[in-house]
From TrEMBL:
Main location group: membrane
Gene3D superfamilies per the UniProt record, alphabetical: 1.20.1530.20
Parts of the chain that traverse the membrane: 60-80, 92-112, 187-204, 224-250, 271-289, 295-317, 329-352, 358-380
UniProt-listed InterPro entries: Cation/H_exchanger_TM, Na+/solute_symporter_sf
Lineage of producing organism: Bacteria, Bacillati, Actinomycetota, Actinomycetes, Micrococcales
Subcellular location: Cell membrane
Name of the molecule in the record: Cation:proton antiporter
Keywords: Antiport, Cell membrane, Ion transport, Membrane, Transmembrane, Transmembrane helix, Transport
Keyword Glycosyltransferase: no
Domain Cation/H+ exchanger transmembrane: 13-374
Membrane topology classification: Multi-pass membrane protein
Length: 385
């Protein structure tokens, strides 16, 4: 199975790279290609990729991919950058995200029929956004820079902000190995490791007799990430919060290291993300979408896309200086992406009683989000002069 998975991944990667320029102008983004590829090659269709939620390979891939993504997300958001233009992204994160979390939980309870704790968990899993599925919005010069900044900062930070809620709720429901005070200790230790390791390495790197050669500069940040990962695994600290904290600390204390790491690190992260999305797609089957999810699940998924985020950001941006057209675009473009994919896999592997139902709903929302947001981003971007 690992060999066929590797063969499938390598083949799709070559196809994605070769058609990337043309696909960038259509709804067929790289992530969409891997999701569809996993779906077609998975057990429900061709059966080339045979994976199950409990497979050690799935668990390892999800861990590495999420660690890499959170580390890279943290690297994108230095404290100095946030101070320079924080007001509008702050509204989206500190008001819009909790509102979306809460409204999703209410809809999950009253529409999908989940108990309150499970509804809150589903809200936390679906809280992060990922503009990779709306690349035309954040990547086109005609789109106002203020709007692009709001969406970029929001998506760069909300993965890490949603994570503690996911972990605590999983622990409360009995799906984490640690719960209560032990879980708090793991979270606190992860944050401590994420702060201290980058600070020590940056201080060492600036000593006169210690200096990396120019071609090895990108490996300084990579080595920090690997060291944080290793220490967290050895000490049982929470490696995800360790990764996110380490990224922010390294970008803030050593901005030159952030610049050196940027291209190399993002390519490594992208590879891990695409591999995880391929596995996620392979776990989705036709019966999964059309038989296992009832009408209430479909209604829930549609409401999450067309009502939850628009309502949350409508309230969050009330009274702001953001023009109406940009406000409407931000309200619509809250695509569910990679963080929700991996958080959904964590829930599926947790063993809590409603894990399968929650994963079904997460998967449906992500699939519908990819279709809806990837097919409208170019059209909306062209509305800006």
């Amino acid at each position: 199975m690992p060999h066929l998975l590797l063969l499938s991944f390598a083949t799709l990667l070559i196809v994605a790279v070769l058609i990337s320029e043309r696909a960038h102008r259509t709804v067929l983004s790289t992530a969409v290609l891997f999701l569809l590829g996993g779906f077609v090659l998975g057990d429900g269709m061709l059966g080339v990729i045979d994976v199950a939620p409990g497979d050690p390979l799935v668990d390892l891939l999800a861990q590495l991919a999420l660690f890499s993504v959170l580390f890279t997300d943290g690297m994108r958001v230095a404290i100095a950058d946030l101070r320079s233009a924080w007001r509008l992204p702050g509204r989206a994160l500190l008001l819009g995200m909790p509102l979306a979390f809460a409204i999703t939980a209410v809809v999950a309870h009253y529409v999908a029929g989940l108990p309150w704790l499970e509804s809150l968990l589903l809200g936390a899993v679906l809280a992060p956004t990922d503009p990779v599925f709306a690349a035309a919005i954040v990547g086109r010069e005609e789109v106002p820079g203020r709007l692009r900044h709001v969406l970029n900062v929001e998506s760069g930070v909300n993965d890490g902000l949603a994570l503690p809620a996911v972990l605590v709720l999983l622990g409360t429901l009995g799906g984490e190995r640690a719960s209560g005070w032990v879980l708090f200790e793991e979270i606190a230790l992860g944050v401590l490791v994420g702060v201290m390791v980058p600070l020590v390495v940056v201080r060492l790197e600036r000593l006169p007799f210690l200096k990396a050669t120019e071609n090895l500069q990108p490996l300084v940040a990579v080595s920090v990430g690997l060291l944080v990962l290793a220490i967290c695994l050895v000490t049982h600290a929470n490696l995800y919060l360790g990764a996110f904290t380490a990224g922010i600390t390294l970008a803030s204390a050593g901005p030159e290291l952030k610049n050196e790491f940027e291209r190399f690190g993002e390519l490594v992260t992208e590879l891990l993300k695409l591999a995880a999305i391929l596995v996620f797609g392979a776990l989705i089957t036709p019966s999964f979408l059309f038989e296992d999810i009832g009408l209430s699940g479909w209604i829930f998924a549609v409401l999450v896309l067309v009502a939850v985020r628009p309502l949350a950001l409508l309230l969050a941006f009330a009274g702001s200086a953001l023009p109406r057209r940009e406000r409407v675009a931000a309200m619509w473009f809250g695509p569910k992406g990679f963080a929700s994919v991996v958080y959904g896999l964590l829930v599926l592997q947790s063993g809590i009683p409603p894990a399968d139902q929650i994963f079904h709903l997460v998967a449906l929302v992500i699939v519908l989000s990819i279709i809806a947001h990837s097919s409208t981003d170019v059209a909306v971007a062209r509305q800006f002069p």
